[in-house]
Amino acid sequence: MNSADQPASQVEVSLSGKAKEDAHAVFGALNTAFASDRAADDAPQDIPGERPTVWTSTFDVSDVRSKPRPTRLTESVTATLQGGYTAVNSLHQALSSAFAVRVVGTASGDQEEEVQLRLESHESGS
Q1: For a tag site, which of 4, 43, 67, 95 has the least CB within 10 Å?
Q2: pTM (2 decimals)?
Q3: 3-state DSSP call for residue 39?
Q4: Cα separation, 108 vs 120, whole angstroms
């Protein structure tokens, strides 16, 4: 990703997991918090075959809406966030409102970073 290609307030989110319903739940939670290039009713689709499926969307963290509520997942989802440091941090915080989040990897650049997260349902109250 090149920071010249993407405004500092935008974060690209890539999700991988087994259930398209879980990807839809994550994108839905993020759509509660921020504007996105994915409509709220745009449900992720399965791709036939043996290859892993990755779903992507871009979120504008400068367009803050409301804090996402805890959301249940059927199993863990891997989320990769790419963007400017402040934007990625804002999106990470929103995900933490909806899910139990564990950082599993990071890569830092001059003006942007990539963070890989493991998302799961909160243990209590979800």
Answers
A1: 4
A2: 0.85
A3: coil
A4: 24
